[in-house]
Every structure is written in structure tokens, then in C-alpha cells.
Specification:
Order of helices and strands of chain A: HEEEHHHHE
Mean pLDDT of chain A: 87
Distance between the termini of chain A: 36 Å
Order of helices and strands of chain B: HEHHEHEHEHEHEHEEHEEHHEEHEEHEH
Shape of chain B: globular
Strand order of the largest sheet of chain B: 2-8-7-6-5-3-4
Number of helices of chain B: 14
Largest sheet of chain B: 7 strands, mixed
Strand content of chain B: 15-25%
Number of strands of chain B: 15
Low-confidence stretches of chain A: none
Distance between the termini of chain B: 39 Å
Number of helices of chain A: 5
Oligomer: heterodimer
Mean pLDDT of chain B: 95
CATH class of the largest domain in chain B: Alpha Beta
CATH topology of chain A: Sufe protein. Chain: A
CATH superfamily of the largest domain in chain B: Type I PLP-dependent aspartate aminotransferase-like (Major domain)
Number of strands of chain A: 4
Number of domains of chain B: 2
Strand order of the largest sheet of chain A: 3-2-1-4
Helix content of chain B: 25-40%
Largest sheet of chain A: 4 strands, antiparallel
CATH class of chain A: Alpha Beta
Radius of gyration of chain A: 14 Å
Chain lengths: 142, 425
């Protein structure tokens, strides 16, 4: 459990990557985890080939939720929407490289949930099974 | 401001030795992460259980178990006797007039729901006012929201100031423009420790002929509560916060009120005579206890009450006051730490909610756990109060009879480590 706060995570928490806002996002979404009050607002810019060219986020909350979003943002820039749609819970856990209790897993997943929901909302497709309304996480189009 | 919950003949409390008390709690001996003693500072969420309670559960299932009340054989008689002895234990604990005034429930939440349904939906109507406070746990807020929505009554709030202290200066205005029927208030706040001045609120409610329900979840396990001296009408509490098992708690209500209230759940146990078309209902208290109750758990709640009384509830309270003050003083010395709720020196329950600038409460609680220091983080089932205070969540440490000075020292040491990890030290 000590590993939860390894330097890699703390560095992303203190100095998040891709923090801020975009002028012309292709889509954006925000989500909250009412359990601990984590909040994320994510903006994504996509090119004609449906590849993510930029991500920016703002938010506040626990180190896990904010660091996970920072790490995720680095991961998905340059990826196609199709690839992002395939990202799973396990992928997030692997990206973070830490073991999480079920309660803290919700914190870690918030960023991916927001990205996925924004993506599907933008495309007008139904959220993938098992992701809409993940646990207590709520989201809203912005 | 103090209400008068202390019984007249209470003996002078002898000081509690938390080390000796801890010896009764097997789970405290070895923490899961360090092997050291578990510094359990989350009793406001649920208390740990002494061997006396665990033994009671085992004894029920091993030597006195059957369904209660109707069986004719020896085990059924013994189980019934032990179950009803717990009712007498609750009566004694609260200084109620009669065991008929004690209804067993799953806990505080179900007890409040019982009143909100049975009394609320029968008696409330448009033009009526229900008053509660801005401090309430969701369990004493949502049932009244629902009862008011269903009946057209209006829900109003006694406000708190920025310290989370109840402001009674505007009480009279709260009763204007309608008929005040019910004042449902928490006794001690689970989020902030705020002590609610029942000695002001109860006479005000009574001057309007309103009923008073007290959420005693955080008071009954920690201080002497005398329902007759308080002059209230209903009181709810949970056994599991009183070192008893989960799934057992009680509603106390004045007999003449309970007698008039209709049952809210129907089935076995609560009936007298049943025909295909119609039924008549059992006497108090069984009228409100439909179905097979939590027999072993209720019986063990009785054991927990006896255990608490053997420690001496005034001694427990005095110990908690000392531990809370010690923890409060030490927390105030932690740089960047803010304690929410009443200021040092103002009466409060054994609950300290705090924030550290630059860290999130969940990160604080997760890191403290690595040292086997258990605190809670979150909104503590008081989302509107958190919003009122302008915070999303807090970290919360709470004390009980087994809390030692060393537990609090380890909390403080752990918080220094939190600050180091987050680059604040």
C-alpha cells in the first residue's frame, strides 16, 4: 500500500501533464465521484483521422484521481478513438502500476470514465456496456 | 449550554484505563499492516466488539437458540428470555418507563424511518412543519424529506454557524406560518462532534406542542442519556456503535404515542389474530417488530449495554472528553491542519474532522492506514453539511473507551508522514 504513493504518482499529482483548457475541443465532458468529491473536466481534440491530437483537463480531488488522469492524458494523445474505446479498467491499473482497493479504484477510473462518456456522447453512440453509470461516478456533457 | 442527561444518583466515575479495556477487544491487538496495535479511530462509524459481545453471539447459537416468542421447548424459551432481557437492558440504559417503549430495529436509520412512516404519514399534512438541523446525517434528513414530500408538510432547518455550531437565535421564526408538528434533531453530530442544545430546543418544541425525535446514534454509546429527563418523545440509536453487533438497534418512544401509531411493516410476530380478509395487531412493542428479529444480535446488544455499564458510562464519557481534548490540541499543532466544528473548549462529542492544506482526505486516510491508524474520509453521510461548510470531504478521527493516548500520538506521527510524502514538510 506504501507503493500507492510512489514518486511517479506524486509527481503527476503535483505537476499534472496536460492540465488546463483547449480553445477548440472536439468534445468535452466532466465527471464527479461523490464518494470523495473528485472532479474532472476533460477536453479532447481529434483530427480528421479520428486520432487524438490534444487533451486538457482541470479538476480537483485525491492524488489517485488526479494523477491517473494526468497519466491517462499522456497515454491517449496520438491514439485513435477506436483504441481509446478499448481501454479497460485493467489498463488503467497497469498504467498506474499500483494495487488499488475497490474504493480507491473508483478514484483511479474517473478520468477514463469521463473520456469514454464524452467520446460516445460526441459520436452519438451508446456508452459501452458496463461503463455508463460505473459505480457511483456521474458525468455530464459540458 | 448543557441539557440534563446525567442521572441524579450517578456515582463519581472512576478513571477508565483504556489499556485494560483494550484487552477485551481481540481485533485491536494486531493491526493488519504493521503487526502493531490497531490505532482504531473510526468508532463513530462503527465500534469494535469486546469478547463479551462476541461470546454472547456464540453462546446464543451454541446453547440458547431457536426462534423467539412462540416456541414451547426449552431453547425457544431461553432464546426468548435472553432476547427480552436485551429490551430491559435498553430500557435501563435510557431510563425509559417501560420495556414496552423499546422497539428493536436494524439500527438508527430504521428507527427513524419507523417514525417518519408510521407517525409521519398518518399525522402530517399540508400546513404542517417539520424542523431538523443543518447538521443531520442523511438518516435523519432523507426520511423527513420523503415524509414531507408525501404529505405536503414543510421541512425547515435550524442553521449552523461556520464552526458547525447550532444557532438557536432564530427558532421562533421557524415555527411561523404553519403548525410545528415534529422536531427531529441529532444529539451529537457524527461529522463535527457538535453537541446540539436539547435544553433549548426541547422546551421550544414543547411550547408549540410539537414532538421531538432525537437521533442518538452518537450520544447513547458515549454519554448518559435519560429520555425522561430530556423530555423528548422518540430516540433512535444503533447497537453497533455501542460495541454490539450490526443489524440491531432500537427506537424508544413514549408509550402513549406508540400505542396510537399504526404498524408500518406487516407479517408474522406483529399480529394477534389473522383471518383471510383482516387482521388485528399485537401489543407494544411487538406491533412494530414484523418478522423474525435479529435474535442473536439483539441479545448481544444487551451484552454490549451491560459491558458499557460495567465500564461505567460516565467514566467512558470522561475518558472520551480527555482523549478528544488531547487529540484536538495535538491536531492544532500540525502545520496546515484545520479542525472543523466547535472550537477547542466548546462541548463536543468524541469526533474531530480535519483537513490538511494540499492533501485530500482520502489520501490522508489511505496513508495513515499503512501505519495501522484508521480514520474515515469522505462526507460522512452529511453531504448538505459539507456543502454548507464549503468542503467536499474531511478526514475524521473519533474516540471510544479503548482509545489510548498512544493511538492519538500515532495519528499525529502519521500526519507528519503524510505531510512529508506530499512534500509539505
Amino acid at each position: 500500500m506504501d507503493d500507492l504513493y510512489r514518486e511517479f504518482i506524486l509527481e503527476h499529482y503535483r505537476n499534472p501533464q496536460n492540465y488546463g483548457t483547449l480553445e477548440h475541443p472536439t468534445f468535452e465532458a466532466e465527471g464527479q465521484n461523490p464518494l470523495c468529491g473528485d472532479e474532472l473536466h476533460v477536453q479532447v481534440e481529434v483530427d480528421d483521422a479520428k486520432v487524438i491530437t490534444a487533451v486538457r483537463f482541470t479538476g480537483q480531488g485525491c492524488a489517485i484521481s488526479q494523477a491517473a488522469m494526468s497519466i491517462l492524458s499522456d497515454e491517449i494523445i496520438g491514439k485513435s478513438l477506436e483504441d481509446v474505446a478499448k481501454l479497460s479498467r485493467e489498463d488503467i491499473v497497469e498504467l498506474l502500476g499500483i494495487e488499488l482497493t475497490p474504493v480507491r479504484l473508483k478514484c483511479a477510473l474517473l478520468g477514463l470514465v469521463v473520456v469514454k462518456m464524452g467520446m460516445h456522447d460526441h459520436a452519438g453512440t451508446a456508452a459501452p456496456a458496463g461503463w455508463e453509470g460505473v459505480d457511483e461516478i456521474s458525468w455530464a456533457r459540458t | 449550554m448543557t441539557d440534563a442527561p446525567t442521572r441524579a444518583a450517578a456515582p463519581v466515575a472512576s478513571p477508565l484505563d483504556p489499556e485494560r479495556v483494550s484487552a477485551d477487544f481481540p481485533i485491536l491487538a494486531v493491526g493488519p499492516n504493521t503487526g502493531r496495535r490497531l490505532a482504531y479511530l473510526d468508532s463513530a462509524a462503527s465500534a469494535m466488539k469486546p469478547s463479551q459481545v462476541i461470546d454472547s453471539l456464540r453462546a446464543t447459537y451454541e446453547s440458547a437458540y431457536a426462534n423467539v416468542h412462540r416456541g414451547v421447548y426449552a431453547h425457544a424459551a431461553a432464546a426468548t428470555e435472553n432476547f427480552e432481557a436485551a429490551r430491559e437492558a435498553v430500557r435501563d440504559l435510557l431510563n425509559a418507563r417501560s420495556p414496552r417503549e423499546v422497539i428493536f430495529t436494524r439500527g438508527t436509520t430504521e428507527a427513524i424511518n419507523l417514525v417518519a412512516y408510521s407517525w409521519g404519514r398518518t399525522n402530517l399534512e399540508a400546513g404542517d412543519i417539520v424542523v431538523t438541523t443543518e447538521l443531520e446525517h442523511h438518516s435523519n434528513l432523507v426520511p423527513w424529506q420523503q415524509a414531507c414530500a408525501a404529505t405536503g408538510a414543510e421541512l425547515r432547518f435550524i442553521p449552523v454557524d461556520d464552526d458547525g455550531v447550532i444557532d438557536v437565535s432564530g427558532l421562533d421564526a421557524l415555527a411561523e406560518g404553519g403548525r410545528l408538528r415534529m422536531v427531529a434533531v441529532v444529539h451529537v453530530s457524527n461529522s463535527l462532534g457538535t453537541h446540539v442544545p436539547l435544553d433549548v430546543i426541547v422546551p421550544w418544541a414543547k411550547s408549540h406542542d410539537a414532538l421531538v425525535l432525537v437521533d442518538g446514534a452518537q450520544s447513547v454509546p458515549h454519554r448518559s442519556v435519560d429520555v425522561q429527563a430530556l423530555g423528548i418523545d422518540f430516540l433512535a440509536f444503533s447497537g453497533h456503535k455501542l460495541m454490539g453487533p450490526t443489524g440491531a438497534g432500537a427506537l424508544w418512544g413514549r408509550e402513549e404515542l406508540l400505542a396510537e401509531m399504526p404498524p408500518w411493516q406487516f407479517g408474522g410476530e406483529m399480529i394477534r389474530r389473522v383471518e383471510y380478509e383482516t387482521s388485528t395487531f399485537n401489543d407494544l412493542p411487538w406491533k412494530f417488530e414484523a418478522g423474525t428479529p435479529a435474535i442473536a444480535e439483539v441479545t448481544a446488544m444487551g451484552a454490549a449495554i451491560r459491558y458499557l455499564q460495567e465500564l461505567g458510562i460516565d467514566a467512558v464519557h470522561q475518558h472520551e472528553v480527555e482523549m478528544t481534548r488531547y487529540a484536538h490540541e495535538r491536531l492544532l499543532d500540525v502545520p496546515g491542519l484545520r479542525v472543523l466544528g466547535p472550537e477547542l473548549g466548546v462541548e463536543r462529542g468524541g469526533v474531530l474532522s480535519f483537513l490538511i492544506e494540499g492533501t485530500h482526505p482520502h489520501d490522508i486516510a489511505t496513508l495513515l492506514d499503512t501505519y495501522d491508524v484508521n480514520v474515515r474520509a469522505g462526507h460522512h453521510c452529511t453531504q448538505p453539511l459539507m456543502k454548507r461548510l464549503g468542503v467536499h470531504a474531511t478526514a475524521r478521527a473519533s474516540v471510544y473507551a479503548y482509545t489510548t493516548r498512544e493511538d492519538i500520538d500515532r495519528l499525529i506521527d502519521g500526519l507528519a508522514e503524510v505531510r512529508r510524502v506530499f512534500g509539505l514538510a
